[in-house]
Give the backbone structure.
Amino acid sequence: MRHHRIAAIPGDGIGPEVVTAALEVLAVLAARDGGFRLDVTSFGWGSDRYRRTGALMPADGVAQLRGFDAILFGAVGAPDVPDHVTLWGLRLAICQGLDQFANVRPTRILPGVQSPLRGIGPDALDWVIVRENSEGEYAGQGGRSHRGQPHEIATETAIFTRTGVERIMRFAFELARARPRRRLTVVTKSNAQRHGLVLWDEIAAEVARDVPEVSWDKMLVDAMTVRMTLHPQSIDTVVATNLHADILSDLAAALAGSIGIAPTANLDPTRRAPSMFEPIHGSAFDITGKGIANPVGTFWSAAMMLDHLGETAAAARLMAAVEGALADPACHTPDLGGTATTRAMTDAVIAGLGR
Ligand code: NAI
Ligand code: MG
């Protein structure tokens, strides 16, 4: 029996609703598989803890997580706590603390789901967006001086290091090579950002020489939004900076039908630290507690986690059950135009896991 130690961090808002649903599905999946067991430890970190103690997680939180094989994360963010406090206090603290430098965001139009793009069917959109997850615009460099004065100043400095850019380029080229179309688009903005993003382009070209099987092109981020919308078939694997990919992947999620479906993996490809899996959506205060959050983004993230843990058969089984449930409009939550609850979708996926 294979054992995997999972840290669950449900977090805020709908985070606990979707993580609870995913843990239930995972438990059934593991029991029916019979070959592996998930030992889950839940951490009550998030905005409630911040209100009680002044910190979203304990000072040694990152060290505590190192002992696990993977992390399943919900969402963080509350209406009464500034978003930069919650984001940096938990999610970014974990991603940067564990050096999970590759953020991987697959996008597909799953069966039964309607893209808002006219005339676009399931085969037209099959992307993986790779987001640089450790530096760039979210390196945390900068500061504020002369607060409240007319000459107040704030800086937000983007950091691009040869090490950081090269490792994400290698990861993206290798990922593109492993996919059937072997095609990579390097997103940039080197016309305006003439230092960091010129280095970015140069390193892309260097790495490309080592991976000749992959055909690649370069695209300015603004033009990329147009291409994603008008020519989605022309795209396969994409690599972009922390900020650019953050924005493009929300667009990708919307084009694939709903932000409630899209998954993410924050990977440490070196496997020195555990990787973290989460839906791309946030805590969604507007629907918290209503029981209608779409759990599919978390289910898909859980499938990516199983893949990462080497449980590829179980991962495929879970995705097949998710696709089976989505094919039935009666299982669709309101974000997909339906009236189903989180519970109903979860039950449908569990039923689809078979015996
Ligand atoms: P959001 O993703 O929470 O919500 C955007 C819209 O999508 C809302 O209308 C929401 O109801 C809907 N939505 C999101 N997930 C859904 C799901 N699973 N099922 C059905 N509908 C869903 O983004 P928003 O409103 O910009 O941010 C809310 C809070 O979440 C903020 O505090 C923000 O900082 C935080 N946030 C946290 C993230 C994370 O933990 N990784 C990511 C994005 C935002
Ligand atoms: Mg985002």
About this structure: The mean pLDDT is 96. The domain at 1-103+261-355 is CATH 3.40.718.10 (Isopropylmalate Dehydrogenase). DSSP finds eleven helices and twelve strands in the chain.
